[in-house]
Write a structure and sequence with these properties.
Strand content: 5-15%
Distance between the termini: 45 Å
Number of domains: 1
Number of strands: 7
CATH superfamily: P-loop containing nucleotide triphosphate hydrolases
CATH class: Alpha Beta
Strand order of the largest sheet: 3-4-2-5-1-6-7
Order of helices and strands: EHEHHHEEHHEHEHEHHHH
CATH topology: Rossmann fold
Largest sheet: 7 strands, mixed
Shape: globular
Length: about 290
Amino acid sequence: MIETAFNRTIVFANRKGGCGKTTVAVNVSHGLCLLGRRVLLLDLDPQAHATLSLGIAPVDVDRHVGHMLEADADLSDIIMETGIPGLSVAPSARELMAFELSRAAHPGAETRLAERLSGRLTGYDYLIIDPPPTVGILTVSALVAASSVYIPMPMHFLAMEGLAEMTRLIYTVNANWNAGLRMRGVIPTFFNPNTRLARRISGEIRSLFGPDHLLPGIRMNVSLAEAPGHGRTVLDHAPKSAGAEDFATLARRIDSDTEDRAALARRIDADAEDRAALGRSIDAGTIDGEAP
């Protein structure tokens, strides 16, 4: 697993296309920046939609994630700044497909991304990874490198099949490469909370994973479709829209949950150190540094 402060490496993944995955990755990244966080968005999809959504055209990209994976370019060599304060991007390009095709059967391909990222994220509060909508080597690589995965999905029955497949994939990654990966929740997209179907699917998710694993939904909103065409996030393109409001809420929830887990981890570490110190004192025949 890569080394980040409090392991803040998040993947938004779903093997079904058209679920709003890239829209979630781009706008949550911006939402976290509005909270004062420093974010690196890594575009791991050969379609490069996250890169395009931030106004960066493929012709303007000299070095991309494929160079880091295939040619030993350093992460710092490919990072580009965006027009959003606090947000950087590691861009993608169609050439990244070569890694998926040529490396899939190579031993160690699953851990290549994690190895190339390890120790190279100083200065960022979050790494957000946007993988392709497949269960291929690029998506597996993203999960191996991550600490948390969120699954964006529309609230309909066919999407439940994709959710089940993603859950099985997460278990496989847990068992083989990354025991620390956790599925943190489902993000409803194209969401209409007033429909009977949405309420029914939401209830099934709560029943399967627990109420804390159903995150605030992203309502259907034309501004979300318009923003990428302008190379902007919805928070920039239409800051007063329902889409911007929903993503601001979602970013706050993800950041708050991450902070809570980090605080708990610090308390556990402090308690463990206190117990270890007490054990050392007992072994040495002293308590609080005083001889008996």
